Structure formats: C-alpha cells, structure tokens
Amino acid sequence: MTDKSQINQTIxxxxxxxxxxxxxxxAATLRIYNRDLEKQIKLKLAKNSVAQNxxxxxxxxxxxxxxxxxxxxxxLIYVSARCRQEIISDYHKSMIHEHQSSNKIxxxxxxxxxxxxxxxxxxxxxxxxxxxxxxxxxxxxFYELLKSLSTSxxx
Length: 155
Hints:
The protein is α+β, with helices and mostly antiparallel strands. Helix content is 40%, strand content 12%.
C-alpha cells in the first residue's frame, strides 16, 4: 500500500513528455462519493473469486489495473456482483436524479463503474421499483373526451 504522503493529490499532472494527463493514482477514489461504498467495494473485491483470479494474472490482463486497492477495467471501477444492486439503487434513488429511466441510469453508472450485464441488471431493478411502478403514466386512467355542457335558454 502506498504511503499517503507519497500520493499526488492533483487530478491532472504533467508526464515526462510535458503533456498534461489524468492522474490515475487517485482516480478511483475521486469517483466514489460514498466512503462506505468504497470500503464495501474493496472488501467484496477481496472475497470475489473472479476478481482475485484477475488480480493474480494482472500482467496477462492489459485492460485491468489496480489503483488504490481498487480493480479497474479500462479506467472504470470493477464492481463485484454483491455491490451492484446497492450502486444501482443509489443512482436510481439519488436526490438529484430521482427515479430516472434505465437509459439515463446506465449512462451515469457506466461513466464510473464497470460490471458485466449492466443494462439487464439496471433494467431489472428499475422494473421492480415501487415508486416507478406507481407513477408510471401507463398506470393512470386515460382521460376521457370532454363533454359539452348543456346551456340554458334563460339569459
């Protein structure tokens, strides 16, 4: 584990060719806004046999990398099966983007996280969401045509 005094805290840094590049050293922890979730991801990663197999053979997996004890796939945080539902629920029920459609949730989650069958899992969770079921427009009664009011001849 890297000593905290050695970690470069900047988001961007200059490389040996004088290009400004993204600092991958703290990239994974910057993207996780919930520290408890970050701990869970690390803990579940240690118990996940697929992830452990990837970590053992990390040299053979060019797309995978370990950043701050978090496994990443093409710079996206790899999430084991046990954390996926919590992440999806957090994004779906967040105060800022409350109960958005599955396409919007997929787009937001896929910016930060990677896991297989993401679309299917997100759609399944949203399909079972009670709030979404109750407020969905198909649950409301259709509006009827307006009926003309009778007018009286007394003016």
